[in-house]
Write a structure and sequence with these properties.
Number of strands: 10
Number of domains: 1
Strand order of the largest sheet: 5-6-7-8-9-10
Largest sheet: 6 strands, mixed
Shape: globular
CATH architecture: 3-Layer(aba) Sandwich
Order of helices and strands: HEHEEEHEHEHEHHEEEHH
Number of helices: 9
């Protein structure tokens, strides 16, 4: 089919780190990257963005992971990811969080940690019970609806916020939902401490055991959708780190995501 191809550095963690860096933060990225030509360009881009790249895991045998998204007038049609490098990561790759460089069992990291469900189910389960993450402000996101159910391991854990779209929420709960508010209530009943559920152009919900806020995003004519959830999450985290009131943080993040999808990507 005729169309256009846009290539850009990405991935959930990098997308979020990029936005946080633009907000004046200095995020550290823990990710698996090869040593091929794509990796060289990617590492250079990470450094240029102002992201701390000291903790990248470099593989001599695996190529750098890639993601292909096919979008049409009605949004995402299909997506395929090669994630061998990411799925090769074991607990050793997360050593900075428990060997004293960032945190340890006796002095756990107390800042925000963003974790996506692209890691293996075994590693995610280990992380859900790791003492050195017990004080962290955990922000969880699904790499895709297919992998969303892996985050069930964090149900019942305090200081843990789930960022999900409606399809991902349905995968975790094992049932589809008509709207974000119903999905949020079901996730809380399942044991989530806090959830933020988006639904494209429809209302999004931020909820915990005490508060439920449901807000519509601005109306927009979408030019792209890939990465919008990552940008929403990063914008929301940046607002909360700045102490923005909860409802305002949700509104600002929704506006940021709407502006992103309305902006046609530059071709490269």
């Amino acid at each position: 089919m005729p169309g256009t191809i846009h290539q850009t550095p990405g991935g959930v963690a990098l997308n979020i780190a990029r936005t946080l860096a633009k907000q004046g933060h200095r995020p550290a990225l823990i990710a698996a990257i090869g040593r091929d030509a794509a990796a060289k360009a990617l590492v250079a881009e990470i450094g240029a963005l102002g992201i701390d790249s000291r903790f990248l895991v470099r593989s001599d045998t695996l190529p750098t992971d890639t993601y292909l998204a096919i979008e049409g007038a009605n949004g995402l049609i299909a997506a395929i990811a090669t994630a061998a490098a990411l799925e090769s990561m074991g607990m050793h790759a997360l050593a900075p969080l428990h060997d004293g460089r960032l945190g340890s069992d006796v002095a756990p990291w107390r800042g925000a940690v963003v974790l996506d469900s692209g890691l293996t189910p075994t590693l995610i389960s280990e992380l859900a019970h790791a003492n050195w993450l017990c004080a962290a402000d955990l922000r969880l996101t699904a790499a895709s609806p297919v992998k969303a159910a892996r985050l069930r391991a964090f149900m019942g854990r305090p200081r843990c916020s789930f960022y999900l779209n409606l399809a991902e929420a349905g995968q975790i709960c094992g049932t589809p939902f008509a709207d974000s508010a119903r999905a949020a209530r079901a996730l809380l009943a399942l044991g989530a401490a806090r959830v933020l559920v988006t639904d494209g152009p429809n209302a999004a919900t931020d909820a915990d055991a005490h508060v439920q806020i449901t807000r519509p995003p601005p109306a927009t004519a979408p030019q792209r959708v890939t990465g919008a959830g990552d940008l929403f999450m990063a914008a929301h985290i940046a607002q909360e780190l700045a102490g923005t009131p909860r409802q305002d943080a949700l509104d600002i993040a929704l506006r940021a995501a709407a502006a992103y999808v309305a902006d046609a990507p530059h071709l490269s």
